[in-house]
Structures are given as structure tokens and as C-alpha cells.
Specification:
By secondary structure, the protein is mainly alpha-helical. The chain has two domains: about 120 residues, no CATH class; about 130 residues. It is built from ten helices and three strands; from the N terminus they run E-E-E-H-H-H-H-H-H-H-H-H-H. Strand 1 and strand 2 form a beta hairpin. Helix 1 packs antiparallel against helix 3, helix 1 runs antiparallel to helix 5 and helix 6 runs parallel beside helix 10. The two termini are about 35 Å apart.
Length: about 300
């Protein structure tokens, strides 16, 4: 990490334009022209990504907003109310997307859409309310909701496209740091285990591949190699065969199974973080707790 380098600095590295944030050089892209059409595409993309990472059953069509709100308000059971609140968040997001889509269509027909338009205001209110109810939604791993993913479509609505792109680079730097934290814990867990002494380079390579994946857009020509390298690097860890040519009398077979479980969960967590391109603090904390329990059993 170069503490003298200013955040936001751009530089060509290995033929690619990179931007520097908080110790990381991140691949950057030219933002599209800032207009309603660009915002529509961006919000639609962010909304699809959001539902892809969240728990099942919450992608409720916007036309059902009133129905799901009534069901949520009438629900008395706390656990069921959480689920219905999650469904309400999904309906609010889709209502906002419906409004924005039609506004862009009107603009394409020559109708001028001003920022203070009533429908623009309603769209913003739907996104803002969805952000609040989004706190009830869990990631597909069941640990947390990743508030950042719920906030991104709203930020894309209120910010310029250029500013939104820049904010994502900051978040990607935080994501890269989270990936390094998890991979470091994986290495720490097998540090004194002779059966897994050759695994460290594979974990470091997986972290490197994860960095490349979270900085690369799906529309980038490099994505085919980047995604392939990332998947294979993870398989190198989960498919690793431990060594049996060193004395392991003090280590039971159960311990070996536990190590493999910890490694598999670490690979899985890094995959979640990388695909979401945002830190997952609660999931990381839970994983660290599992690692500590493993180490304590070896004492």
C-alpha cells in the first residue's frame, strides 16, 4: 500500500487504465453519457444484481405493491412479517423500475422529463422506502442483507452517472480488503498443519483471482478468462489432497474433515463477497468465529 498516492489517481498499468483507492489499483471504465436512458440501464442492471444475491421469493412485480403492503401491515407474526417486509422491498424496487422505464420511453418520444416531475419524485420515494425495508432482507447465505446492494439503485437515481461509477471504485477497494482478510484467516487456520503445508499459494491465488473478478464488469472482453480463473482457483483449494507423509498421530481424522470444511466455507464466502462486489461484515465475523473454534479444538 502506497500511503503517498492520492485516492482517485488514474494510471495505465499493463495496458489497462487503473484508478487508485485505499491501497488498491482497480480497473476502471468510462462512464456512459449521463441521461435518463443511461440511468434506466444502470438501475435495471443494479436491480437484477440485487435480486440475484438476495433470498428467494422477494422479486414481487410492482403492480402488486398495494397488495403486498396490505399483507405486510396485517401480519402479526414477527418472523412472517420480516419475510413480507422483504417482499414489500422487492415490490417497491420494481415499482420504481416500472416508473423509470416509462419515463425513459416518454423521453424517447420527445417528451421533456424535468427533475421535479411528479413521477420522478414518486420513483425516488419508492427507492428510498425500498432501502428501508431492504434491511429486512437476507443474502442467500442467510447471514445478512447487504444494505449496500439495496442502496445502489437509489444512489444511481440521485447521483450523476460519473459520481456513481466513482463511488463503486471506493466500494470495490473495501471489497478487496475484505477478501484479503478472509484469505489471511484461511492461511492462519492451516499455518501449523503439515498436511496442508502446500496450500498457501493456492489461497493467495484465489484471493488474487477474486480481486480481478470484482473489478471486472460482465461486459468486459476479459470476463471469460477472469471468471474461469476465479472458479478454477477455488476448485484448487476445495479439491486439495492433504499430505500423509508427515507424522499426524496427534491429529484425528475428524480434524482433517474440519479443516476441509473451514477451507470450503472460506472459498464460499469469498465467492459471495466477490460476486456482490461489496464487503460482507456479518458473514465474515461468523466465519472468523468458526475459524477460532477450529483452532481452539487443536489446543
Amino acid at each position: 500500500m502506497d500511503e503517498t498516492t492520492e485516492n482517485g489517481l488514474r494510471k495505465v498499468i499493463n495496458g489497462k487504465i487503473k484508478v487508485y483507492y485505499d491501497g488498491y489499483w482497480i480497473k476502471c471504465y468510462e462512464a456512459p453519457v449521463d441521461n435518463l436512458s443511461a440511468k434506466k440501464s444502470l438501475i435495471q442492471s443494479l436491480t437484477r444484481r440485487l435480486f440475484n444475491h438476495m433470498e428467494h421469493g422477494i422479486n414481487i412485480p410492482g403492480k402488486l405493491l398495494d397488495d403486498v403492503r396490505s399483507s405486510y401491515e396485517a401480519e402479526q407474526d414477527p418472523r412472517k412479517k420480516r419475510v413480507k417486509g422483504a417482499m414489500l422491498a422487492g415490490a417497491l424496487f420494481n415499482r420504481a423500475a416500472d416508473i423509470f422505464t416509462h419515463l425513459v420511453d416518454l423521453e424517447a418520444c420527445g417528451v421533456e422529463i424535468l427533475p421535479d416531475n411528479d413521477l420522478m419524485h414518486t420513483c425516488g420515494l419508492c427507492l428510498q422506502e425500498a432501502l428501508e425495508f431492504g434491511k429486512l432482507v437476507k443474502h442467500r447465505n442467510g447471514d445478512e442483507g447487504i444494505d449496500e446492494l439495496w442502496g445502489e439503485p437509489f444512489k444511481a437515481f440521485i447521483m450523476s452517472v460519473d459520481d456513481f461509477y466513482e463511488s463503486r471504485y471506493i466500494k470495490i477497494a473495501m471489497t478487496m480488503k475484505n477478501i484479503e482478510q478472509v484469505s489471511a484467516y484461511m492461511i492462519k487456520c492451516i499455518k501449523n498443519d503439515p498436511r496442508f503445508s502446500g496450500l498457501n499459494p493456492f489461497i493467495l491465488e484465489y484471493a488474487h483471482a477474486a480481486h480481478r473478478k470484482c473489478e471486472t464488469l460482465r461486459t468486459d472482453d476479459d470476463i471469460f478468462d477472469v471468471w474461469t480463473d476465479f472458479v478454477v482457483a477455488g476448485e484448487d483449494i476445495t479439491g486439495y489432497t492433504e499430505k500423509h507423509n508427515t507424522p499426524i498421530e496427534s491429529i484425528s481424522l475428524l480434524d482433517s474433515i474440519m479443516v476441509k470444511h473451514i477451507l470450503k466455507e472460506g472459498v464460499r464466502l469469498i465467492a459471495f463477497i466477490t460476486r456482490a462486489r461489496t464487503p460482507m461484515s456479518k458473514s465474515t465475523e461468523i466465519y472468523f468465529g468458526e475459524c477460532e473454534r477450529y483452532k481452539n479444538q487443536l489446543l
